[in-house]
Amino acid sequence: MNTIELQFDEKNSDVLIWNGQVVMSRTEEEYFEALFARLRYLSPSKVLEIGFGLGISAALIQKHLMPAQHDIFEVEQGIYMDLQEFANRHASVRPFFSAWQTVQNEEKYDFIFYDPFDYIPHGQFPSYSKSETATRLKQLLTPSGLLCHPHFGDGDVPDVEGFDTVIVERLQVKPIRMADESTCEDVAIVYHQPKA
């Protein structure tokens, strides 16, 4: 099964809470604004975004990266309906109601923004190891393409198998509401480039 329908504890324009966990919060917006503004120079033509959430990153990708094609995969039905509304306002956006692993092999992207929420405890998705995930993401990138994801905290940025890690900048932002209701002010702008 590639899609799910969830009952959120809270779902509005500022926060998504499911099963007692913050899926996404508007408090992430300052960080994402800094991230995509800083990476604007990349000017990717084709972007794959994994997870829509509140649409914060999608709107900022449109604003700063301005891709010719912006494919967004979302697995949760209610959030996908929000994604469809967003796509109606942005001509380059192609919404997909499916797990990102279903992307066709011939698709190649210049930039992948990987920010899914792990609904696996719900039990409806097959699990993928970190190695399998890294391999699949690498297959979807052009040779010069980049993989990007949020990094919260001032600790080490985890390496991704088959990629070189680049920490562009570390910065502090207003407190971000994390999944476990803690807060975080330390973030990093990070990307990974495929090893040859």
TrEMBL record:
GO biological process entries: creatine biosynthetic process
InterPro entries: RMT2/GAMT_Mtase, SAM-dependent_MTases_sf
One function term, GO molecular function aspect: guanidinoacetate N-methyltransferase activity
SUPFAM superfamilies assigned: S-adenosyl-L-methionine-dependent methyltransferases
Cellular component annotations (GO), alphabetically ordered: cytoplasm
PANTHER family listed in its UniProt record: GUANIDINOACETATE N-METHYLTRANSFERASE
Protein name: Methyltransferase domain-containing protein
